[in-house]
């Protein structure tokens, strides 16, 4: 696996020449995730999943290139929390389309958009960017991770994971709860405020429908707490397992769509 921003141009030319290149573009956001997790949570998560998926794709014959993360996204639901930043959906869409076109200009025309942030208009913007790139025949493009297609999201994130829950209400775990806390404790523990976790009571009693459909903002849904579920149920061990499982899941979704590299 190569990171595009860390290699020189002749190396890119070599990868393109191989005919096996597959680019993963991680996408996240700058958004509150409770008092214990960093604002870059979803961007970091997308990067971790990209790294975890890469070996499986390599095994299937691809040369994986991870492009620099799009760290900004649409986050109007949490905009009242200090530090949360939001793009307009159109801005995000344009950014991804521009990146896809630039990659394709060099022959990097197999693009996986791996999104770590669940937000309806954010996911729609990414899907529209994908549709545009495919429609104009710029690139083969695929949305994975959190996507507008609920079945794809489930195949990437839920498959094989739910049974790992230590929470008394796994059905109420969401943004900033057990899963994201676990991932952060495993993959970037230095960015987790562990003392704060001890003081965070579970937040199970919220309007699930309003959360899922984004009809209410995060601040009013959580009484200003910013998380859904139980951060205390999270652990680095669970995080290690979900990264391995989701990395494999994501690779499987990609391979199901595109097959193995035909130039193996
Ligand atoms: Zn998140």
For the structure shown, list the relevant keywords.
single chain, 264 residues, binds zinc ion, five-stranded parallel beta sheet, alpha/beta, 10 helices, 45% helix
Compact overview of the structure:
The protein has 264 residues and is of the alpha/beta class.
What does this structure look like?
By secondary structure, the chain is an alpha/beta fold. 45% of the residues lie in helices and 9% in strands. It has a five-stranded parallel beta sheet, sandwiched between helices. Helix 2 links the parallel strand 2 and strand 3. Helix 2 crosses helix 10 and helix 5 crosses helix 10. The radius of gyration is 18 Å and the shape is globular. The protein starts with a strand and ends in a 6-residue tail after the last helix. The mean pLDDT is 96. Zinc ion (ZN) binds next to helix 2.
Identify the strand order in the major beta sheet: 1-3-2-4-5
Largest sheet: 5 strands, parallel
Write the H/E string, N to C. Answer: EHEHEHEHEHHHHHH
Ligand kinds: zinc ion
> Unreliable segments (pLDDT under 50, ≥5 consecutive)?
none
Q: What oligomerization state is this entry in?
A: single chain
Helix content: 40-55%
Number of helical elements: 10
Distance between the termini: 16 Å
